[in-house]
Structure formats: structure tokens, C-alpha cells
Queue: 3 jobs
Job 1
Amino acid sequence: MKKRFTFQCWNCEKTYTLFREITKEQKISVACPYCNTEAVVDLDPFRKEKKVVSLVRGDGDDEQSLGVELELPEIIPTQKPE
Ligand SMILES: [Zn+2]
């Protein structure tokens, strides 16, 4: 699912929005449209593990499902690529 995210450039400190698909990757790479600098976003600190246990039993749908939710700030900081 693609969503619009706001990133802050680590280099020029301007903010920009990009449509990105956030998957299970821990890091995504972006490029600042102002200074054209590559940046990486570490999503790991924003990852919240979510455990869903269905308490409904008897209908064959009582399996435990694990999911990961991202709780991202309004402006996502970026880092210099290593
Ligand atoms: Zn920039």
C-alpha cells in the first residue's frame, strides 16, 4: 500500500513528501528533491510489534496472527547513507 510520507533531508533539512510503499524492509532509501541527496530512513525505531490473539474458538479461526505496525512521526527523519 502506497502512502504519502513527509521526510526531512539530513543534508539541507528541508522537508518533502513522497509516495512510498512501506514494506517489511527495515530501511528505505529516498532522494531529496531539493539538493538531490540520497538518504536512508531507518524504520526500525517506529516498528511496533502487534500481537493479535483471537479469542473466538470453535469456528476454526482461533489462530494467532502476528503483525507489525509502523507508528511513524509526521515528519520522518532521514540519515546519511553509509
Ligand atoms: Zn536536501
Job 2
Amino acid sequence: MPELPEIETVRLQLAKVLPGKKIRKIEILKLKSFQGKKELAEGKEVIGVKRMAKVLLIDLAGDIDIAIHFKMTGQLVFEPAVQKSTKYEVPSAKGRIVGGHPTKDFTGELPSKHTRVIFRLDSGTLYFNDQRLFGWVMVNSEFKIQNLKFLQNLGPEPFDITGEEFEKLVSRSKRPIKLVLMDQTVISGVGNIYANDALWEAKVNPRRLANTLRGNQYKELYKSVLGVLREGIRYGGATAADAKYINLHGLGGHYQEHFRTYDREGEECLREDGGIIHKFSLGGRGTYFCPVCQR
Ligand SMILES: [Zn+2]
């Protein structure tokens, strides 16, 4: 599941190529993947690319937005217009911008059987692909999209609050700290990978109840959350282990090479005198921690 750094990475890349281009036509291949009125977007120019938590927003002229929620397996692929001289080349990763859940569709021929919505631009094509069909594309007025109930219910992003506000938000809860970090109504944008790694950085046991952290542990945890998210963005997000081949094409992120605990069950802690990374399930999600340094 793409997390905030993965969405922010694709936002940064699309923000370099989409503004100034016009949406010529929207083709809906799967009704379930689309909400709103495509006619509102057709003929409109892209002004910018924004993000609200894990929802990507393509801002169009006339206060119209295209919202894209990747959920489990959504992905975007932007394919630049084919140059005449390369028209007969085998489709490749060349010049593509990809983001979201990594699959062979990053490099394969498009549209594929997972393509749900196609945005034909005056130059290039944007594909929304989604294997498991939980993701969606919505076209509506900027006002309607920003007032969607689930966006209104989101807590602030860590980037938008201070350490004191972070402490106030998380210390209200008596649930395990990891579940609180991942509760999008408390703080938005921290998913499983980054919650695991931030807790290791701050030396906090994922099971610790959120109201029982001591001393400057809240401050340490806040810094760690910001640190791992920023690092995730710097490395272009994390590309899942089942898609390592993507890197052969220079696509996908590299944060997975910097995991602290995530996906490292049975391996040694990165700290000297640390323990062996344990894995257990907390709230149904794989939770990794070092029993020696995380208390
Ligand atoms: Zn350790």
C-alpha cells in the first residue's frame, strides 16, 4: 500500500510535467473506479498537482479537481507523447513517470488489463491502474472534493504541527502508540512502514500505551516521525520487495534499502548491542521491533 512518501514522490514528479497540459478526454474502463463527472475535466488545463494526506489532487482550471486515491494497489503511469522516430520501439520505461503500487505495469504496455481510467492529454497520457479495485478517481469541483467527509475527518499531517501539538494529540489515547500513530483521524500520513521505523528511532515499544510515554519520548517520537517520512520522500518512497525488478529500470523508490525494522524479522538490530528484530501482529498489521532498545 503506497504511503505518504510514495504519494508525495509521484506528486513532485507529476508537478514537473502536467501543468500547462490540457485534458483532452477521459476514458473510463471500469465504472467502479470512477466518481463524479468526467465532462467537468475534459478540455481543461492542468494548473498544478497537490496532495491531501494520501489523496493526489490534479488541480484544473475553473476550480475543478481530479482526486486520486491509490488505496491498496492503485498506481499512476504518465507516458509522454511518442516521438515519431521512436514510434515502433518496444514499449519501455523510457520517459515514464510512475507512482503508487509497483507492478509490471510500470514498465509494460499500456493500457493493460488493470487500467481503469485513461486521461488523454494534448501531449501524453496518464493511466490509472488498479489490480484490486479499492482505489478511485473522482472529478468534481474543488469545493466538493475538499469537503469530502473522509478528508474532513483526517488529522493534521506531522509536517503541519509542532512537537507540542503532536504530544497533545497522541497522549490523549490509551491505545498502543503504534495504532495511534497510524490512526489517520489523529495524525494523517503515517502508515505501517514509517510507524515501525519511527518507533525504533525513538526507542519506543510499539505496544506502549500512548498516554504512558515518559520524559522527552513524545518529542523524540515526533522528530523520528518527521525524519523517516522526509527520508522516505528523499529516497522516492519504498518499493515493495515483490517488485525489485522495477529498480532495474531505474523506477521505484529506494527507502526499502534503509528500513530500520520493517521487513527485517530475525535480523540484528542496527544498533550496536541491540537485539534481534521480532515480528508480531498489532491491529492486524505486521509490527517489527527490537526488544532490547525499544521500551
Ligand atoms: Zn535494538
Job 3
Amino acid sequence: MRKHLAAACVIAILPAVAQAAWVAISSDAGKRVEIDPSSVRKEEGAKLVVLGRIFFDKELTDPRTNGPYKSIEALTRYDCANRTYVTLKRTWRSVDGELLREEEVRSGSEMPVRTGSLDDKMLREVCRPRTPGDQQAAASKLVDKANAAATDLRKANEAMLQKEAQKGVKNAALATPAKEAAAPAPGPAAATAAAAPVVRAPAPRPRPVRRPAPETTHDAVRQHAHIHWDYEGEGRPDNWGKLKSEYATCASGKRQSPIDIRDGIRVDQPAIDFAWRPSQFRIVDNGHTVQAGVSGSSISLLGKQYELLQFHFHRPAEERINGRGFEMVAHFVHRAEDGRLAVVAVLMESGAENPFIQTLWNHLPLEKHQEVSPPTTMIDPSGFLPADRGYYSYMGSLTTPPCTEDVLWLVMKQPVQVSAEQIAIFSRLYRNNARPVQPGFGRLIKESR
Ligand SMILES: [Zn+2]
């Protein structure tokens, strides 16, 4: 697919390897944003599809699979005439380019490209006219990168071989050839790994996720568990840590959520800058909660931006405030580019009917795991925020397995009202989907005064 790239000069180093030619678009603390100009594919009109990636300086942990990743690739379609883009697919890759997880963006809508934004830089790079000279320049950059990658990979290969020798051949049984087909666009690192085939066969591979519905942030890869996590029975919360080794943090973690929020220090906290926008949405009953996804919304806190991925509900509310419980809570899960999670919690109490909730409930899917994307209905999450933007903040975890820690919790102090009937509707689906409060272990809690 990328063979038209002038790769002749690379062949001496990496024979017969199709190679992504990453060209840096921007680079700042901890990460580079790159595109592969040779991947550009024309579509109808002035639309171009291109493979880009964020390459991080250090390994990060994927909250969904708990696996380590070093880069996130994104297949994006840019409309050069209308200055819009839509993300088609995201792929998480490990340090040696192995596929960790893929996420098809099924109902992505076209987003406007804001002037001066990173997407603006991407669009300009992708949409500018291409000449043969460009490709030569890209190819010479590629040689430098390939040399560096070869050195890195030799080290990584040696380390992996050592690890494999310790583990024995058992892991070879886990290798699934299908995954090779699922990784059509390996980065330079992976391509170099292919040049040393001895590593590839026994390498332990992340297990593919086989589920009918889109995986959620709170869900773990769990097809090997005989007992699924739940809120009652064998899979109840106090057993989560024993169900799977990946869930160990649920039992052993010292920064678990939810907590009873009390004894916070009252200070002037920075305002959360909510850029929650109206958008279309998708909604699914994923077997643990009702969850909705939107696009184009984010928050900023202390200059760091977190994109809103999804929100979902618990009944009763998981968190307590000075011992007090609430009817329900909505968790708005955000992720920054570096993978850090921030969850905004909006507590809900019984009162007036809530139009935001009503729109969601109107579109509740009839079947579990069947996602619904209403074609013409918009929702505006900002309409759900309480008038008072004061909040509590503390460091915690996901409240469902694998209970990953290092999650920034932002719990709005003022609850919002929903009607008793709206609460009753959710109760028909989930009477109790709240994890009990966890020990605080002396964690600092801040409270807006
Ligand atoms: Zn939650």
C-alpha cells in the first residue's frame, strides 16, 4: 500500500518491508504528532484519508485493556474544501508496534477544523499539493528514523527474547495469526521487528476482544473469566479483585473510587472550563449501565484539555458527601491526549423533570448491547450541569473493573434534579449498579469554597 514511497534507500537496512514514513507535524512535552504522507488516499470531492499518530515518549497504560501502549494511530478523513474532519479508526500500539486495541469510530460526525489548532496543522499538511520532491524529502527523513528504530528494536528484541526464554513456549499457543491481518499499517518499529522474525512467533499477544457491542471504558477484556463482574452474587464488588489477575487493583489499590467525600480542604480551586457542545449521540445498555457517547465536547483544567468520551449512570450515586447518599449520579469520562482520565460526576436528586435525561430515556435501546444512534436528535450535555460550578477534587480510580487508578475525580458540589419517574425508569434497568465506598487512605480532597 505504501510501496510507491521512494523506499529504495531504506532497502539496504530493511529489505522488503513496507514502511510507514512518519513525518512530525508537531512535537511538545512527552509526545509527537506525526502523519504518514504516503498513506494519503483520495476519496470523492476534496476528501483525503490519512494515517496519523501520536507517539509518546514513554509507555502509557490503556485504561480499557490495562495493556501498555506507546502510540495511538488514527485514520482520519479530511475534507480540504470544507475544512472538516472525521476520525474513522483509532489503533493503540505497544512499543514495538504490536496492536493492542482497535476502535472503529462508527457514528463519527464531521467536525469543523479550528484555525490554529493541531487539526488545522494536520489539514494543511494533508491537503497541500504533493510533488515528487516531497516524497524524496520524506524518504531521506525515513532513513534517519529507520536507523534509530533499528537500534531501538535490536535492544527491544534482545529484551523480549530474554523474557520469552523465561516464559517458555507456552505463550506460543496464545499467538493468533488473525492479528497479523488486523495490523495492516505497522509503524517503522514494527516493520523492523518483522525483519527479525525470530521475535514475532513466540511474542505474547494481547488477546483480541470479541464482543458484540462496543467496548466501554469501564469494561475490561474478560472473555476468560468464568464469573463476570457484577453488583451482586459471585461477581459482586468485594470479589472483583479475585475474578481475574487484571482486576487485582480493585482489591489491592490504595486510591480506589468511589469514596465518602469528607474533610476536604476548602480552597479556591481553578474553574473547570466546560466546552461541552450540542452533538448527536449514541446510547447503549452495556449490561452494567446505560452509557451514551458524544463528540466534540471537552473540558480544560489548568491548561490541560480532556476530551469527553462517554457518560453513564449509577443508581444509587456511588460517591457520598459527608455520609449523605444521592438517588443517582452521572459520570462524564474524559481523556487527555496523554491518556490521563478525568471524570466529572454530577449528582442527581429527586425533583423536577430533567429534559437532558428525558431525551436519553426517550431513546433507550430495546435490547442490551444494541447501540442506538438517533439520526436527527441532538443533546447538549452542558444543559445538565448544575448552576453552581463548585466541585470536589481527589485522585481515584475507575469504579468498575479493572479499577485502574490515576483518575482525576471532579465531583460537582450541587446536585441536579431529575423526576421520580425518570429515576424509576432507570431502576427498571438497574436497581443497584453502585460500587460501595472505598477507604480513603488519607487522600487529600479539595473543595471549592
Ligand atoms: Zn461510573
